[in-house]
């Protein structure tokens, strides 16, 4: 089995993948630990032959995790943000400072589409662009839905947005404080994604496929005006592309890769942008 770990600052996700069939056998998520407990926080390592890690947690957390795994598992692969990989050139002045989760998403998106806008809707919402030909432009970081809500300090922190809510409902004025907060942060988030996507496509003269991932991708998706796809395993797919360990991965098949709709015509994107600037 392959154990894939996507370690965030607060939440860590894992999955077990069968080497022979390339099927996902199980998955889960826990709060990021200072000390991991195999069999409790992560699966029993007796069945694991290799581990792949993407981590944005503190260096000490990653080092302790790697040390634990290396004592129990034959191969431990740790992803890092580098100047160039898999045909993509990192757009950061200091490539190593780009969050590795963003880098994995950019690499996975490029392998799937040949140029994309990747949006990770987690604690922060990150928006990265890779042009056809592999030039990563860099990106944007804005507060995520939960972070924006917590910053208001209005006692609504634990009242989450229903991911099944319709966009029209979430974009309407709130009729109580909880609704006003939820609808306000939703409007801020989706408006930012829509505007950033349109601005960059306009400036670069290309309509890019749009991919969403992260815990809030499903709810943010409802307010995105352009054709797009949700890819929950996009960071894992970056690990697969960087460290292919199964026959399917070596053939370029990434688990959970979605059907990506054709992006809107650039003329339509520009028309919508021009209209929004008049408001």
What does the model show?
The protein starts with a strand and ends with a helix. The chain has a five-stranded mixed sheet with strand order 3-2-1-4-5, with helices on both faces. The chain has 279 residues and is of the alpha/beta class. It has helices at residues 59-72, 100-113, 145-152, 167-170, 177-204, 217-221, 234-242, 247-250, 266-278, and strands at 2-7, 11-17, 24-31, 50-55, 75-78, 84-85, 88-89, 116-121, 124-130, 136-143, 210-213, 229-230. The chain has two domains: 2-78, Nucleotidyltransferase, domain 5 (2-Layer Sandwich), CATH 3.30.420.40; 84-278, Nucleotidyltransferase, domain 5.
Key traits:
five-stranded mixed β-sheet; Type III pantothenate kinase; alpha/beta; globular; 35% helix; transferase; 22% strand; Nucleotidyltransferase, domain 5; single chain; ATP-binding
Q: How many structural domains?
A: 2
Overall body shape: globular
Strand adjacency order, main sheet: 3-2-1-4-5
Query: Taking all residues together, what is the mean pLDDT?
Result: 90
Tell me roughly what share of residues is in helical segments: 25-40%
Rg measurement, Å? 19 Å
Biggest pleated sheet:
5 strands, mixed
Briefly say what this structure is.
The chain is α/β, with parallel strands linked by helices. The chain is 35% helix and 22% strand.
Mind sketching the topology for me?
Elements: E1 2-7, E2 11-17, E3 24-31, E4 50-55, H1 59-72, E5 75-78, E6 84-85, E7 88-89, H2 100-113, E8 116-121, E9 124-130, E10 136-143, H3 145-152, H4 167-170, H5 177-204, E11 210-213, H6 217-221, E12 229-230, H7 234-242, H8 247-250, H9 266-278
Parallel strand pairs: 1-4, 4-5, 8-11, 11-12
Antiparallel strand pairs: 1-2, 2-3, 6-7, 8-9, 9-10
Helix pairs in contact: 2-7, 3-5, 5-9
